[in-house]
Queue: 3 jobs
Job 1
Amino acid sequence: MQEDASDDVLSADQDSARGSLPLALSRAAASFQDLASSVGMRVLQWLHWGKETVKTRARCSPDALVQMALQLAARRYFGRPVLTYESASTRRFHLGRTDTIRSCSTEAVNFVNAALLRLQLWKQNERSTGPSDDNLAEPSISRRGASHPTINTVRKLFQDACKRHKQLSTEAGLGQGVDRHMMSL
């Protein structure tokens, strides 16, 4: 019986595949270790208050509070509002996946602007008079005469931003967000 030449080719390919698979796995593991070691992470366990405190004291959802904090932090870091992405599940629909919640709304920008102006005033007062809770007193006029938002104004703008975030979250969850529709076009 004569051997088929294709059997030789097949066995040669199998031998090289067997030899390269462990090598490829080893390289992949080393690459993963390099990548994993370059990631820094710190865990903070916060025990002072939780979601119920946020709901009762801040009168907003914990998600909205975090999104507004991200907007404020991003604005302070980058010096301008930044677009953010938060996924919303559309699992209630057949084959539903996700849609996008865009938390950088006009209301969020208004809140961030007011909060930053208020922070600026607080820092100015602290430099001139020293640390004190009185630096947050109402009404607030800076030394240059420019009016700064009051704490109550900042609180109202925060509430408006959180309500808008909740509205956008609900719309996205109901399939009424804009990102997936625009992507389909």
Job 2
Amino acid sequence: MYEQLCSHENLLLAFKKAKKGKTKKDYIIKFKRNLENNLITLRQELISQTYKPKPLKTFIVRDPKTRKISKSKFRDRIIHHALINIIGENSLKDLISKILTKLKGDRARAKIIEKQIEYTEDWKEKKETSLDLLNHLIEKSFIDKEDIIKPLGTSQIFALYCFPTTPIISKNGKIKYSLNRRIYPNFLKKLGFIRLHLRRGLFYVIPRERLIPSLQNTFYLKQYILEEIEKTFPVEWERFLKELKRKKSLLNEYNSYKNKSYKQELKFNILLLNTDISENNVGYLYGERTFTNDFHNFLNNQLDLKKLNFPRSVKANISEYMKNISIVFFFKGENTTNIQKINDVEPKLKSGLSIIKWTDYLDKNQEEIASIFKLGNLSESRAKKYSELLIKKIEVYRNALRELRINL
């Protein structure tokens, strides 16, 4: 087919089609004066695979709608027609349609993955808030730690089992270097997957409810994982070769690998399971102590406040206590000096904004809150930051209490 594309007959036919309706244009008259030599030059560039399209000429057209037009050089239009002569008009339309469909699919998948990453970040923040609240209630003796330990049962999860086959260099029975340790799909963390340690491969799990609905059918998920792994391989292969080269004891191994492609050596098979899985049905994997401990911790850490049910009297005591907490509670992690400033300015916030309970701040303007924070010897930027943080923290803690069915 490529020989047909480069043939003199095909290029001559393409020239005739390209000049149709434009025979009086200066650039066509100029090209036609030296037609044979011009076609021979194009043919030689195609055969030697040195042909490169010229930059497009861009201009604005107003007829009457304003449009930006990009125009190719005449010699490039001859190549366009030469291609169409061989593959056909319909085939070209089909090819363009497939490319556009793929691009549309890529964009759709990118949006879905971006949504999952945002969802994971939100869940992490929610989990941190939940743990902080429960630990505080335990510390104040409202509840016991045993009250929040989730019994080991069955969880519906996605389990991703990865089998990397990578070079392992050993001497005298001892492993000197294993690329297996290098290939660690960190991008899975962004999606919310948790790694469980396993000698036979890489094992990741995520509860079904931690995936947005679009990813629960696994189609986009598989595509994304495989594409990201393909990006990882060439980078890791280069690092692998550099490390071999640096070690004199592995110089022979470096010489044997340096001319190989990563595609020859690295393979990555994945098994994506959508299943109910528990401590009792993980099969032969359950025999590995580290994996077993990781898996127990995974099940216990799937904290869901909605599933916790405290006695009515306990909830009433928590409600009464939480109504009266200081806003200092929401600024854990700040330095002692700033905590004292917040504590000192709190009475002014309450009187100036008519605050009865801390959820009342949600109805106030952030600028008003910031202006009173400044009265506590806080800089303008810090006062603004603290007003935003206060509103955000109050909202997430209020939602956490609502999930526990505790009203303020």
Job 3
Amino acid sequence: MIVSTLIRERRISPPARILPVAEAMAEVAASLAGPQAERAARLADQAEQLARTVPSYETRTSARAQVAVAFARAGQWEQAEGVAFSLGSPEYQASALSQIAVAYARAGRWDRAQKTADALGDLGDRAAALAAVADAAAERDPARAARFAEQAEKLARLIPDYVSRASALAKVAVAFARAGQPDRVGATARSRGGGRLYAWEMADLAAMLASYNPDRAIHLAL
């Protein structure tokens, strides 16, 4: 294997150079998905081998989370989920699973996107993942995207902490905008309450909405 040869010949010396090489390989693998999926899968596999040799738990886990996403974008679903579920960090696991759910949605594999998002235990993580899935589904199937956004909204409203709830609802509002549901954008965003965070996020939502519904955007911004 290329990886073992490079390490054996000390052309890659752990730990200083292994992590950036593994991360770069995972990034390249993700960018090759589609017509070069087989090559992407090989690169992701090599990146996983490299990432496992990083001594630091934190940096190793970060690199392997990127590898999980690379596998998903290459259509190697079992490997993607296998790596993601083996991550010991809830934070990195949530990030990887959310991006895998998005990859499923972009591939039109709606049931798997739903199941992967539902695997997230934290309400905020699950709401954010479903909102991201809705974003990914919007171009292919706007009606389905709106249904994902509705699920995300229901979950987001259950989050007890105000700041976390507000952040999740902002993501949901964006998902509704991209799904072509302008009425739901304003209702979702305005239900979050006031504050400086609310003001700049509302401006961003209004700017997004302006591209296809200027009147609604003006109303939202006021």
